[in-house]
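Title: Comparing notes on inverse folding

I've been comparing how different people in this forum approach sequence design from structure. To keep things fair, I'm posting one structure and asking everyone to reply with a full sequence. Here's the target:
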């Protein structure tokens, strides 16, 4: 993608396109699962604090991480094989920034209705199910927070979830609109804009979002803002 952005060469080989799509699918599906695992971690920490060390042991953290990556590897491999075994003909010019699922299906020389149904089923299962697990976790978290007697305790507890909530909103908002909207609302221009959100903007914002909870980073940012205001 960076080569295409900064050079005039916009072509990509068949193998390169398959590799790019596999990497994109792998990281996207894995992030869905990891965000759900992180929501479960926050749920245990806030709703069952005395059991946190026992429940979220090193073995459990490793298991959640390993399962997330395994699901990503297997599903990405299946999706890539599924897409690149279709017959392609013509110029094979992709109307997109990178080799994504839906733009590639548009290039196939056969009826892709069954393929699109399969993609939507995978999207519902591995985008919506983790999302529903995240929502369920935060419903329980909010219920616990509202029962706290101290307003300061409520703010402090909720602040531990704020970074994760922002990341979930950025990632899932664009992903759900991109892959689960009806065909009648699909357009290549809007799809490109949404793709930029979860392929470039979200990864670029994640380090900043998570680091803002760090006290030293906050103090350095306050000093920088104060310095710019004074000058």
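Reply #1:
Here's my take.
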């Amino acid at each position: 993608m960076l080569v295409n952005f900064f050079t005039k060469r916009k072509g990509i080989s068949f193998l390169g396109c398959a590799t790019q799509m596999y990497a994109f699918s792998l990281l996207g599906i894995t992030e869905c699962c990891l965000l759900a695992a992180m929501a479960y971690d926050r749920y245990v920490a806030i709703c069952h604090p005395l059991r946190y060390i026992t429940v979220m042991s090193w073995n459990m953290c490793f298991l959640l991480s390993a399962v997330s990556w395994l699901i990503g590897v297997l599903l990405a491999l299946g999706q890539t094989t599924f897409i690149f075994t279709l017959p392609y003909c013509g110029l094979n010019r992709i109307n997109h920034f990178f080799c994504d699922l839906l733009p590639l299906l548009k290039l196939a020389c056969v009826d892709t209705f069954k393929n699109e149904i399969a993609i939507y089923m995978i999207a519902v299962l591995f985008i919506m199910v983790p999302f529903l697990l995240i929502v369920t976790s935060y419903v329980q978290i909010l219920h616990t927070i509202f029962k706290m007697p101290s307003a300061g305790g409520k703010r402090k507890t909720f602040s531990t979830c704020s970074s994760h909530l922002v990341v979930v909103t950025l990632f899932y908002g664009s992903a759900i609109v991109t892959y689960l909207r009806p065909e009648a609302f699909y357009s290549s221009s809007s799809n490109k804009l949404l793709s930029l959100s979860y392929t470039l903007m979200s990864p670029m914002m994640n380090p900043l979002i998570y680091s803002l909870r760090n006290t030293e980073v906050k103090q350095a940012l306050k000093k920088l803002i104060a310095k710019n205001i004074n000058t």
